[in-house]
Specification:
GO molecular function, one term: ATP binding
Number of helices: 10
Subcellular location: Cytoplasm
CATH topology of the largest domain: DHBP synthase
Strand content: 15-25%
CATH superfamily of the largest domain: DHBP synthase
Enzyme class: transferase
Largest sheet: 11 strands, mixed
Number of strands: 15
Strand order of the largest sheet: 1-8-2-3-7-4-6-5-9-10-11
Bound molecules: threonylcarbamoyladenylate, magnesium ion
Main location: cytoplasm
Keywords: ATP-binding, Cytoplasm, Nucleotide-binding, Nucleotidyltransferase, Transferase, tRNA processing
Helix content: 25-40%
CATH architecture of the largest domain: Alpha-Beta Complex
Number of domains: 2
CATH class of the largest domain: Alpha Beta
Length: 316
């Protein structure tokens, strides 16, 4: 723990960005916004700093982290680059996409980041605050979502503060995250494989590569160690595909239904994704026994939303 230390609240102005960057270079933990969710960042080359991420999250150490970069020049020396990686990067970076690539031998990165795997997850986020911070820090930044392991992901600075308390040295407050769901993870270390659905669909990736993207199998624990079934869990039980809501349930609607909160009354999946974690946080705060959720169409961003919801509903 960090006896006597208060978490600094920083704004993304020049002073706040410089302070956040200098904390990162000093091996401290800084939560920062990306367009997907808030990340809990640390210098990816610093074993102590990366260990502090795992400690703050209470995260099993076999679950590897995504490393964030401001530009391709800093990213490429870490990995074995390929034509497929180039095509994907050109189409989707900066953006809500993570690539898993072979780790280049001699790359300067803590072994704790990759959890001993011979691959590494890398990402170039699009949110201006994230890009400004990464550029100012000048170091690769390892960052999982900035929440205690297994809890709902943070899409606002207040969510980070509520989940991690003073276990983080600073929180850079850039307001709500635009996408609101974690990045799509595409494995390119072997056959192109969708490791986690997210803001960019499997179809869009397949279109750029001119080939079908394989789907990960539920039992495939080696290629995506973090994809445990129970995840993104509110304290309440979760009931999916609710056509009607029972008395006493907290209700989360989609489309033209009456509910406590509605992800998108007009049935817009992009709006629903952006609201998902914030609304789960809000309903859970009222400590209901059950949160009942309307069916979400299983297409486009709906695939990623349903992935997170089924994990939230999984036995735990
Ligand atoms: O949108 C996001 O991706 C956010 C922001 C902060 O960038 N980050 C995020 O990180 O969601 P996290 O740690 O919650 O999820 C990272 C996922 C985990 O499921 C982990 O197992 C997987 O990436 N992963 C990391 N390195 C991997 C690797 N070498 N091979 C396969 N999966 C990997
Ligand atoms: Mg997470």
């Amino acid at each position: 723990s960090r006896p006597g230390r208060m978490t600094e609240r920083l704004l993304p102005d020049p002073t706040g960005l410089a302070r956040a960057a200098s904390l990162l270079r000093d091996g401290r933990l800084v939560a920062f916004p990306t367009e997907t969710v808030y990340g809990l960042g640390a210098d990816a080359r610093d074993d102590h700093a990366v260990a502090a991420i795992y400690a703050a999250k209470g995260r099993p150490s076999f679950n590897p982290l995504i490393v964030h970069f401001a530009d391709l020049d800093a990213l490429k020396p870490m990995v074995t680059w390929s034509d497929e990686a180039e095509a994907i990067a050109e189409s989707f970076w900066p953006g809500p996409l993570t690539l898993v690539l072979p780790l280049r031998e001699g790359a300067r990165v803590s072994k704790l980041v990759t959890a001993g795997l011979d691959t590494i997850a890398v990402r170039m986020p699009a949110a201006p605050v994230a890009r400004d911070l990464l550029r100012a820090a000048g170091v690769p930044v390892a960052a999982p979502s900035a929440n205690v392991s297994g809890q709902i992901s943070p899409t606002r600075a207040e969510h980070v503060a509520a989940s991690l308390g003073d276990r983080v040295d600073a929180i850079l407050d850039g307001g709500p995250c635009k996408v609101g769901l974690e990045s799509t993870i595409l494995g390119l270390a072997g056959r192109p494989t969708l490791l986690r659905p997210g803001g960019i669909t499997r179809e869009a990736l397949g279109h750029v590569l001119g080939r079908r993207i394989a789907e990960r199998h539920g039992s495939d624990t080696i290629s995506a160690p973090g994809q445990t079934r129970s995840h993104y869990a509110p304290r309440a039980a979760v009931r999916l595909n609710a056509i009607e809501f029972e008395p006493g349930e907290a209700s989360l609607g989609f489309g033209e239904v009456e509910a406590d909160l509605n992800l998108s009354p007009s049935g817009d999946l992009t709006e629903a994704a952006a609201n998902l974690f914030e609304y789960l946080h809000r309903l859970d705060a009222k400590a209901p026994k059950v949160i009942a959720i309307s069916p979400i169409p299983h297409l486009g961003l709906g695939v990623a939303i349903n992935d997170r919801l089924s994990r939230a509903a999984a036995d735990r």
